[in-house]
Amino acid sequence: MSSPTSTMSPMPMNDLLAQLKHIGLKTIPANLDDFLARATKARWSPRMLLEQLAQEETQERSRRSLERRLRLSAIKKFKPMADFEWDWPTKVEREVIERALTLDFIHEARNFVLVGQNGLGKTMIVQNICHLAVLAGCSVLFRTAAAIVEDLRHEMFEGRRRKLRGYSRADLLCIDELAYLSFDDKAADILYEVINRRYERRSVIVTTNRAFKEWNQVFPNATCIATLLDRLLHHADVTRLEGDSYRIRESQREAATRRKKP
């Protein structure tokens, strides 16, 4: 006696969409008709169909992940390193900066500290490093020292602990313009806590316009500065830029050009 054969009827389109979304797919449900049309026209085998589905979902997830990391990094607009004039500073250790651009210090949990007067391109350099790190798949936070202090200063214990955890977990934290402004001892304690939580675990980039021996003037009442510098510089590549402000030169050029106009 032969057993009856069962056939699987096609699933209604709405049910298929719901199930694809339920298992976490994003790209295919949004373009399901087009995807099925391409599969039918090209006569994909079941294996080819699954490979194409996985490829398109993976590409879209990578794109969304990159967009999210760029947004959270807050790097904002910057000039590419191709525009950096290496011959403008009177002192620049190009090999140190170019090595930092390879991101090798991140894999070693080392820090990178850039010291120099205003207008020499410190922020531009570290923005490029941070952008490359995002493209490489790293989570990055680009913040000024003042912004970090403001973000944490008024938080209660639980809120501050939660935010400190965020600052400590990013693969790369860039603290721009540290020591540009005078801070009180509470600000110094906040910055110390941020750096200490990352010590020998994850990399920190710092830009500053003050020599380290002058940091006591920036944090005049703080007792933690020596320890903060000890943690920051223990495993760090430190390089210095010297010269006149590029922005002032650019402003002078623009003014001269305007004066020549009839």
Notable traits:
262 residues, alpha/beta, Rossmann fold, 13 helices
Would you give an account of this structure?
This protein is an alpha/beta fold and 262 residues long. It folds into two domains: 56 residues, no CATH class; 175 residues, P-loop containing nucleotide triphosphate hydrolases (Rossmann fold). 55% of the residues lie in helices and 11% in strands. The chain has a five-stranded parallel β-sheet, sandwiched between helices. The chain is globular, with a radius of gyration of 26 Å. The termini are far apart. The model has no long low-confidence stretch (mean pLDDT 90).
Distance between the termini: 104 Å
CATH architecture of the largest domain: 3-Layer(aba) Sandwich
Fraction in beta strands: 5-15%
Strand order of the largest sheet: 2-3-4-1-5
Number of domains: 2
Mean pLDDT: 90
Tally of helical runs: 13
- Rg, please? 26 Å
The helix/strand class is alpha/beta
Given as residue ranges, the uncertain stretches (5+ residues, pLDDT < 50) are: none
Tally the beta strands.
5
The CATH class name of the largest domain reads Alpha Beta
The sequence of SSEs as H and E is HHHHHHEHEHHEHEHHEH
CATH topology of the largest domain: Rossmann fold
Largest sheet, described in full? 5 strands, parallel
Helical content stands at 40-55%
The global form is: globular
At the fourth CATH level, what is the homologous superfamily of the largest domain?
Answer: P-loop containing nucleotide triphosphate hydrolases
